[in-house]
Amino acid sequence: MSDQTVSTKPKKEPSTSPVAGGQLPYLCDLFSRQEARELYEQIYKDVKGVKVSHEERNQKKLTDKSLIYGEACYDEFCEILQHVQPNPGSTFYDLGSGIGKALVIAAMTVPFAKVVGAEMLEGLHAISMEAVSRIKTHLSDQEKETSTQFEIHCKDLNNISMTDADIVFISSTCFSDSLMDRISRQCEQLKTGAKVVSLTRGIQSSQYETIEKKHIKMSWGSPTYSFKNTKAQRRHRRLRSAPHQTKTLNENSGRSVVDDSSGSL
Question: What does the alpha-carbon distance between residue 18 and residue 36 come to, in Å, rounded to a whole number?
Answer without folding.
Answer: 21
